[in-house]
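ASSEMBLY PREDICTION REQUEST
Request ID: AP-0331
Submitted by: J.K., bench scientist
Number of chains: three
Total residues: 1155
Priority: normal
Notes: Please return the full assembly, not individual chains.
Input sequences:
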Amino acid sequence: MNGINGAPLLRTTGLSKSFGAVTVLEDAGVELRAGEIHAFLGENGAGKSTLAKLIAGIYRPSAGQIERNGRPVTIHNPREATELGIALIPQEPRTFPDLSAAENIFVGRLPMRSGLVDWKSLYGRAEELLHELGVALDPRQPARSLSVADRQMLELAGALSLNAEILLLDETTASLTPGEVSRLEVILRRLSAAGKSIVFIGHRMEEIFSLCDRATILRDGKIVGERMISETSPEDLLRLMVGREIGEKVVRGSVPTGKPLLEVKGLSQPPLFHDISFSIRRGEIVGLAGLVGAGRTEIACALFGLSQPTAGTILVDGKPAEIRSPRDAMGYGMALAPEDRQKQGAFLPISLWENASLSSLPRLSRRGWLKDSVSRTLTTEWVKRLSVRCREIEQPLHELSGGNQQKVVLAKWLETQPKILLLDEPTRGIDVHAKTEVHRLICELADAGMATLLISSDLPEILALSDRILVLRSGRIVREFDRSEATPEAVIAAAGVSTGLPDKPRSMVA
Amino acid sequence: MISSRIRRLWNAYAPEIVVTILLILAFVISGWREPRFLDAAYLFDRSTLYTEIGLLTLSMTLIIVAGHIDLSVTSIIAFVGAIIATLYSRYGIPFWLLIPLAPVFGGFLGAVNGYFVARRNLPSLVVTLATMALYRGMAQILLGDSSLMTPPDYTGIERVTLPHTYLHTPLVIWITLCLVFAALLHRTVFGRYITVTGVNPEAALYSGVPVAQTLIRLFTLSGAMAGVCSVLLLSRLGVARYDHARGWELDVITAVVLGGTSIFGGRGTIYGSVVAFLLITIVQTGMGVAGVKAEIQVTAIGLLLLLAVLLSRLTTGRK
Amino acid sequence: MINKLFQRREAPLLIILAALVTIVCLLQPRFLSPGNLQSVLLWLPLLIIVALGEMAVILTRGIDVSVGSILGLSGMMTAMALRDYPELNIYVAALLATGIGAFLGAINGGLIAGAGTPPIVATLATLGIYRGLTFVVSSGKQVDDYQLPRNLARWSIDGPFGLSIPPYVVWIALIVAAAMHLFLTYSRTGRDWYAIGGEPDGASDRGVPVRLQTFCAYVLSGAGAGLAGLLYASRFGTVNPASIGNGFELLAIAAVVIGGTSIFGGSGTIAGVLLGCLLLGVINVALAVLNIAETWQSAVYGAVILMALLTDDAARRRLMKGARHK
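STATUS: Completed
Returned structure:
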C-alpha cells in the first residue's frame, strides 16, 4: 500500500518553525505510512499542532523538508496541500452556515454542468460520501443547524472527496460527546483499512490506545520518542510527555495560613461551570488544573467580571463583592492575565509604556489628564525588574518576543498593585528561559502576599508552583490536592485523562 | 544619529509629513497662480465657509481612531438647526437660550448612535447610515421644504472679527477646539482609551478599559460637535433648512483619512487631520476661484480620498 | 408545511407587511385603488434592481454606497445618448446603461478586491466622483421628456398583453429578480458569495477565488444600478443631474437589510429583498394615502432600518446561543 519502493506517503526531515524569536518546533522528523493511524502526542505548546499545520500548509517551515511519496515538495498554502492529497480537520470546523451540508463538502469545486451548478449530482455525491462515512445526515440541510461533530464530518467528507490520502485530525475529539467519539473511531478505522494515512492529535490515552498504531511524542518543540502502541503503556507515554524538569527549580516558602483573601461559593454559569467553591489565602498559589474546555478560563472570566454567573457569591477579604465588569473586579484588587495574549492582552502596534500603564491610568492621571512621564518612569522600572529585553520603552510591542510581550502584559497588571492575581496560561508559547523568569516572579509575588489563581495546562508548572491544586472536570471541581499529595499521575487521573470517563470527556491540554 | 532620528520620525508620522508637504505645495502653487491666496484677509474670509467641516473633522478623527465611523453628523446639524429654529419662531423661546442647548440636543442624538453601537454591538457604519436618514427625515418633518429664519441680529456674527485681527469668530472657535481635541486625544485618559479601543477592542475590555462607556461618550461628543456646527451654520446662512450640510460627510472623512488616520482604527493625530482639512480647503477654494462648480468639486474630493487611502497603503505597507 | 413557512426568516416580514396593509386599508379604504396600486408598482422596479445588486455586495460582507451615483451617471449618459442619437434602439440603450454601470462597478471592485481599499471608503469616494462626473458630462443641463423616445416612457405606462397594470418596468424588475435568484442558486459565483460572507478565510483555503468573486459582486451591483438609470429616465421622463439617483443608496441598503440579509454577510434571500422593497414601497404610498406629508419618508425609512438591525441582532444572538448549547 505504501508509495514507490515502500517509501512512506509522507516524510519530514529537520522541520522547524519559529515565530520571531520563539522556536515552537525544532528538527522534527516523522514518517506517515498508508493504512496507519499515527498519534502526535504532547502537552500544550509541545509543537504537535504546529507540526500538523506545517504538513497541511497552514504554516510554512522556517527550515527542513517535506517529502511526499519520496519527492521533496514545498507547500505554500492549504490549497496546495489539498492538491497533494493532504487535509487537516481542525477542532472547530470552519463551516459556511448558510450553505447546505453538501455545498460545505464541495465548496470551491461544486460540480457544474454546462456552466450551472449541478445540484442533483452535488446532492448525490454528497449523499454517497456521507453514506460511505456512515453518517446519517441530510445533505440538503443548511450547515448552521448541524452539531460540531456533524460539521467535522463535513470537513472529513470534503477531504475524502478530494481523494486525500493523508488526514490530519487536530484535537478533533475535544468537543465531542462519547457517542460521537466512538462513531468517529469507527470511521477512522475504516478509512485506515482503506489505505489512508491518519494523524490523530490528542491526549486522551484511552482513545489513543484503542485507535492508534503508532505515536510520536513531542515535548518543548522537539520529538522525544516514537512508540508502537502495541509495545507501550499509557504510563510510558505520559512519562515521555511530561517527564521534564523545569529549567530551574523554584523554591516555594512555607505554606501560608490565615484567613482567605478570595472566597468563591457555589459559583455557577451553566453550561460552562457548576457550583464552584474554593478560597485563596494571602500569599497562596492555587492551581486550577483540568482539560481544555473543562471551564477553567470561564471561571477566571466570571471572577473578573467579563461574564455574569447565574448563581454564587464572591467574597474578597470576607466581604461580598459585587462584580459586573473588569473595572469592578479591579476595584477589589483583582488582575487577570488572559489566556490569549495576542488577542486579549497585548496592543501590538503601540509602545511598551502605553501598554504597561493602560490598566493603571486612573491612578496615572489627574482629573483625566495623563501623567505620561510617570508612566514612562514606572515602565522603565518594570522593564528592569522583569528583565524585559527591549531596545527602549518607546518600542512598539510587536517588536518583542512572545515571552517579553507576556512580561509587559504582567507589568500592566502588577502596575495596578493587585492583591489577587488570576493567571490564565501565563507561560503559553514562551521560551524556556522566559518561562523560568515568570515562574520566579510568580513565587516572589506570592511570598510578598499575593493571592494567586494559576490556570495552566502545563502540568509540571502547576505542580511546581501551586500550594494547592483544584482539578476541574466538565465544569465541576472534582478533587483538591495538597502540595504534598499531588503527583502528575494523580492529577491527570482526576482530570479524566486515562480513566474510563463517566461524563462528557474533553481532551487534556490543548 | 540624526538620520536615525529622522527615520524614526518618518516611521511614526509618515502620513502627517506627506500631507504637510502637500499643503505647502498647494499653498505655493495657488499663491503663484492667484495672488489673492497670499492675502491673509482673503484667506480668513474664505475660511468661514468651511469652519463647520473643520469642526466635524476633529470629532470624526476621534471616531475613526476608535475604529468606528459616524455618517449621521451632517443630519444632526440639520436636525438640531430645525429644532432650534422651530422652538424660536413657533414657540417664541429666546434665541440666546437655545444656542447653548444646541450641543445638548446634538449630544443626545449622538448618544442614541452610541447606544446602538456600544450596547447592541451593531456596526457603526449601518447604524449611523440609518440615523442619517432618521435625523434628516425628522428635520424634514419639522421644516418641510421651507426655510425658517433665525433672528436677524444673530445672522452674520461669523463676520465679527477679533479686534485688530482678521480672525473671524468661527475661526477662533475652530482654532480653540483644535487645541482642545489635540489635548483630548493625545493627553487625556479618554483619548488613550479611544486609541486602544481602536487598536484591539477585546484586549481593551480585558484590560479594564470601559469600552462601552468610552464609545457612548465618543458618539455623544460627535453629536455635540454637530450641534455646535449647527448654530454656526445658522448664523452664516440666516435660515434653517432640512437639507443643510448634506453630503459633507465625504469632505470630513476625506480630511481625516488624508491626515493619516487609519480607517481600521488605532492610529491618527489631530495635527494630520487639521493639515489635511486645510489642504482640502485650499484645493476647494482654488477650484472655486477657477470657476469649477461645487457639484463637480465632489469629484476632486472623491479622488483625493482614494489617493489618501492608496497613499496610506504605500507608506504603512501592506499587512 | 405551514410550520416550515413560519420558520423562514421572511415570515415576520410578511406578517408586518400584511398588518401594515390591513391597518392602512382600515384607515383609508381607497388605499387598494388601482391608482395607488399602480403607484406602488411604479415605485418598485428601480429599487428592486438596485437592491438586488446591493444584496450581492452585502452577501460578501461589503457595502456599496455609490449605487445612487452610478444610477445617476449611467442614467444621465444614456439619456444624453438617446437625445443626441434619436435613432438609437432603446434595447441597445438598456445594454449601454447596464454596461456603463458595470464599468463603474468594476472600478469599485478593482479598488476593493484589487487594491484592498475598505468598501466604505472606496465607494464613498466614488459616490462623490461619479456624482461630480454626472455634472461634467451633462454640463449641468437636464434632459427633458420631449427629448427622449416615446417608447421609453411607454415602459412605465403600458404593460404586456394590452394591460396597463403591471407596466413593463415591473416585469423587467421581476425578470431581473428571477434571473438573480437563478444566478445565486445555480452559478458558482453566486454560491461563492455566500461562502465568502460566511467564512472568508475558510473560503479562500477551500479554493474559492475570493478576490475575483468579490470583484464580480461590485460589477453586478454597478450593472443593476446602471440599468436602473435608464428605468429612471423611463419613469420620470426628465433626467436632472442634480437629483437623479440622489440618496438611492440608502433605500437600497434599507431594502436589503429589512429583507433579512445579514449585514455581517453570508446570508440572505431574493424573496427577502423583494419583500423589503415591497415594504418600503407600501410605506411610501401609505404615507401619501394617509395624507401624511411626503416629508415623513426619510425619517420612517431610518426608523425601519434601525428596527430591522435590531431584529437581525436579536436573531444573531439567538443563533449564537443555540450554537453554544450544542
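REVIEWER COMMENTS: Residues 297-325 of chain C form the longest helix (29 residues).
SIGN-OFF: pending second reviewer
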